[in-house]
Amino acid sequence: MFLLGLGSVLLRTELEVPQPLPKLFSLYLLIAIGLHGGYELSKSGITLDVLKVLFLAVFMAIIVPIYAFFILRLKLDVYNAVAIAATYGSISAVTFITAGSFLNSLGQNYGGYMVAAMTLMESPAIVIGLILLTLFAKRNNNSHIEWKEVFRESFLNPSVYILMGTLLIGFITGEKGWKAMDPLFGVLFKGMLAFFLLDMGIVAGRRIGEIKRVGIFLVAFGVLLPIFNALLGIFLAKLFGLSKGDAFMFSILCASASYIAVPAAMRLSVPEANPSLYVTMSLAITFPFNIAIGIPLYYVFINLLWG
Q1: d(Cα 124, Cα 65) in Å, to the nearest integer?
Q2: Are 159 and 122 in contact (CB under 8 A)?
Q3: Cis before 65 (ω within 30)
Q4: What share of the chain is helix, strand, coil (3-state, %, to 5)?
Q5: Is pLDDT at 238 greater than 90 in this prediction?
Q6: Rounded distance between C-alpha atoms, residue 263 and residue 269, angstroms
Q7: How far is CA 155 from CA 26, 214, 262, in A?
Q8: CA angle 87-169-126, nearest 5°?
Q9: Cα torsion through 281, 222, 119, 177, rounded to 10
Q10: What percentage of the chain exceeds 70 in pLDDT?
Q11: Which residues have C-beta within 8 Å of that of residue 145, sequence separation ≥ 6?
Q12: Residue 299: count of CB within 10 angstroms of its CB
C-alpha cells in the first residue's frame, strides 16, 4: 500500500486520503499497539528477559544520537547535526507496526513488551540532542533552552502519552480487557494499517523531490546509518540472548528514525536547524528504505544467525 501511494504521486493520479483521516489512523494504530502490548506484557510478566530488552532499548536510544552527531559534524553545523542525530536516535512507530505485520505474516511472534521498549526509545534522543547542543553550540547570550518544555515534549508528546497510557490500560485489564477491545483494535488492525500506509506513501511521494536538496552525504547517511544501527541491534540481541522475533523487532527500532515527536521537539528547541533536512531525511529517505528494503534485509540477517 505504501508503494501504491508513492506511485500515485509519481504518476500524478491526484489520489488523496481525506483529512483528517490520517490523524485518526495514527491514533488508532497507537492505541491498538499500546493495548495489545500491555495485554502481552500482562501475560509474560516483568521477567529477566523483559528487563534485558528494556535495558537494550534505553542503551541504544542514548548512544545512537551521540555517534550520529559526531558523524554529522564532519559536514554540518552543530544545530543541524543535533537535530538530525536526535531524529535518528528516536524511532518510527509506523515502521515498527509494519515490521510486526511482516513478522506475523511469516507466522512468527514477538513479545508484547517490545511495545514498552518502543515507548522508552521515543524520548531519550531529544534530551541527548539538547545536551549535545548545550555542550557544543555557541549560542547567543540571550538564547537559552527551555528545559521544562523540552522534558514536556520528550515525555508528554501525544504519541508517547497515548502509547504509555494504553500500554498501562492493557497491562491492568489483561485478557478480559483485550477480548473486549479485540473486535475494533485487533480484527480491523490490518485494514487500518493499509489505509495509513497508503497515506504515508502519498506524503513521502510529495517530499521525494526534496531529496536533491539534502545532498549525497545526507542521502548516504539516511540509508547507511539505519543499516549500521540495525546490525548493532542484531549483535546486541544475539549477545543478550533475545528470541528471534524480539531481535527482529529490536533491530527495526534501532534502524528507524522519528518523523513526528523529535521534529516537533527540534522545531521548538533548535530553531536554528533546517526542518527540511531532518524531516526529509527521516520521511523521504529512511522510512521508504526501511519499508521496502530494510525490513526484509534485517530479517535475512537474523534468519542467518538464529536459523
Answers
A1: 9
A2: yes
A3: no
A4: 80, 0, 20
A5: yes
A6: 10
A7: 18, 30, 11
A8: 15
A9: 80
A10: 89
A11: 130, 133, 134, 269
A12: 20
Single pTM value for the model: 0.78
Quote the cell numbers at residue 153: 515534549
* The three grid cell numbers given for residue 180, joined into one nine-digit string: 473486549
Residues in the chain: 307
Q: Cell 521534529 appears where?
A: 263
The three cell numbers locating residue 290: 526501511
DSSP string, 42-80: HHH-S-HHHHHHHHHHHHHHHHHHHHHHHHHTTTS-HHH
250 is written with which cell numbers?
529490536
Q: Which residue from 140, 160, 162, 151 is spatially nearest to 265, judged by alpha carbons? A: 151
Candidates 47, 86, 92; CA nearest to 197 is 92
Q: CA nearest 86: which of 261, 280, 288?
A: 261
For 68-109, how does the pLDDT look when each residue is reduced to its tens digit (9 = 90+)? 999 999 988 899 999 999 999 988 888 998 899 899 889 888
With vertex at residue 56, the alpha carbon angle to CA 55 and CA 62, rounded to the nearest 5 degrees, is: 95
d(CA 274, CA 90): 18
User: Is the backbone peptide bond immediately before 226 cis, with ω within 30 degrees of 0?
Assistant: no
Residue 72 one-letter amino acid: L
- Other Cβ atoms less than 10 A from the Cβ of 70: the count is 12
Q: Tell me which long-range contacts 21-26 makes (C-beta under 8 A, separation of at least 24).
A: 21/195, 21/199, 22/196, 22/199, 25/192, 25/195, 25/196, 25/199, 26/159, 26/196
The CA-based diameter of the chain, rounded to the nearest angstrom, is: 58
Single-letter code of the amino acid located at 204: A
